[in-house]
Design goal:
single chain, Dna Ligase, domain 1, D-amino Acid Aminotransferase, Chain A, domain 1, alpha+beta
């Protein structure tokens, strides 16, 4: 669960971290009239998305006329596909220096990582890429409940070493790092980030921005914390802060989908690799499918096979929703091959095959990109599904010429995946299917 900036700052304050004075949250221009405004003020768009500043979602106002103008423009903004519905107003603070601090969970190892940089207030990813020497990191594999002074002092020493003018706040920096770590651990967070941590002209340290991501698996234990910042613990907030185009489309249609590739819209494919989209049956089978594609790729194809997504197509999706699942993957620029399976329990094999064939026919008629599909179906309504598939192949062979579905248990799914990958490499080599021009 990602928190809005003003929610994250409430947690920071509970752990002794100073933040700018909050003026209010507004949802319309008329809300300005009821606020006591001492200029200058900062106006910030409240969306769960990065890059607000570059998109015009963070502005400074020096008077009421500027404030009205900025708020009007922000309410008309759409940042990375998300409409602005609320704005945070807070007092502006003087800036002498800007620092980056974060505590994160390494998604691969689940170790904790403390990160610091004296180059705060800008895109930290660009700093890490172009000036890695400006980034300090410490990996903590023992999951300590509190951060040792030794580590916090090491981070403070690094910051002062990169910017000697921070020497006057060195001890305060160490304290802030310890407090941020405590907020991270006691809230059972996955990410706590301050960018920037401002050093004011009078040497105060203030968290000017705040990013806070809570572990969904621990929310039931964090009910008191959530209530204290105005969140109903029983409510479900969807994690939309870093949605890709395809994740957003799946969310609108109503099925779980996660891109495994960063920035898929502009993704640059490696020509020697095969990129596999997955439409499995159920969440557990979806995780298994990812592992099995990687396993078979490593065993038989020199590690050149890349699963591109997680998807949960279980729970009895409608015919149109099944079709949308295949449309999404065939519209995805990375997809070279689609692997699918239907182990019908709650979900009907008949509805599944009808939805898949509907998608293929629609794409053929509209001359949209066609992708080979390999899969297997077993379970509920299998007889009807087999009859529909056989009839469809006779009625419209051209749209279905690259549909390869095993009906029944005569072949295990691992062999279906292997056959599909071999075919995918063959077709990609012959025709360049899926290669971005």
């Amino acid at each position: 669960m990602k928190l809005y900036e003003y929610e994250a700052k409430q947690i920071f304050e509970k752990f002794g971290l100073a933040v700018p004075k909050k003026i209010g949250i507004i949802e319309s221009i008329s809300d300005l009239e009821g606020l006591s405004l001492n200029f200058p003020i900062m106006i910030k768009a409240m969306v769960l998305i990065g890059g607000r500043g570059k998109a015009g979602g963070i502005k400074k106002a020096d008077n009421i006329e500027e404030a009205r103008d900025i708020c009007n423009k922000m309410f008309d903004l759409v940042i990375h596909g998300f409409v602005i519905r609320r704005l945070l107003l807070e007092e502006a603070v003087s800036v002498s220096h800007e620092i980056y601090l974060s505590i994160i969970t390494d998604p691969a190892t689940f170790d904790l990582v403390v990160v610091a940089s004296a180059s705060g207030g800008i895109d930290i990813e660009e700093v890490a890429k172009n000036q890695p020497e400006e980034i300090w990191k410490r990996t903590l594999s023992n999951n300590p409940k509190t951060l040792s002074e030794e580590v916090s002092q090491e981070a403070a020493d690094f910051l002062v070493g990169r910017n000697p003018e921070l020497a006057s706040v060195k001890e305060s920096l160490s304290t802030v790092i310890i407090s941020l770590f405590s907020a991270f651990q006691q809230s059972e967070a996955k990410i706590c980030e301050i960018n920037p941590l401002i050093v004011t002209n009078d040497n105060q340290l203030i968290a000017a921005d705040a990013k806070f991501v809570l572990d969904d698996n621990s929310l039931y234990r964090q009910a008191p914390l959530l209530k204290s910042i105005g969140i109903d613990p029983k409510s479900k907030r969807h994690d939309v802060s870093e949605q890709t185009k395809y994740e957003a489309q799946a969310y609108i249609v109503g099925f779980p989908f996660l891109d495994l590739l960063a920035n898929p819209v502009n993704f640059q494919k490696e020509e020697d690799k095969l990129y596999v989209g997955l439409v499995p049956g159920g969440a557990g089978y979806g995780i298994f499918s990812i592992d099995e594609v990687v396993n078979i790729g490593n065993r038989y194809f020199d590690g050149n096979v890349v699963p591109i997504n997680f998807m949960d197509s279980g729970g009895g999706p409608s015919l149109s929703k099944v079709a949308d699942m295949f449309h999404l993957l065939m519209d995805h620029p990375a997809t070279d091959l689609v692997i699918t399976s239907r182990f019908g329990g709650i979900s009907s094999c008949d509805i599944f095959i009808q939805g898949l064939i509907m998608a293929l026919r629609d794409r053929y008629i509209s001359k949209r990109r066609m992708i080979p599909v390999f899969g297997r179906m077993v379970g509920t309504d299998l007889a009807a599904a087999r009859a529909f598939l056989d009839k469809a192949k006779k009625e419209s062979p051209e749209p279905l010429k690259d549909l390869h579905i095993i009906v029944g248990n005569q072949k295990i799914m691992a062999d279906v995946i292997k056959d599909g990958i071999e075919y995918g490499f063959k077709i990609k080599k012959q025709k360049g299917i899926g290669v971005i021009k």
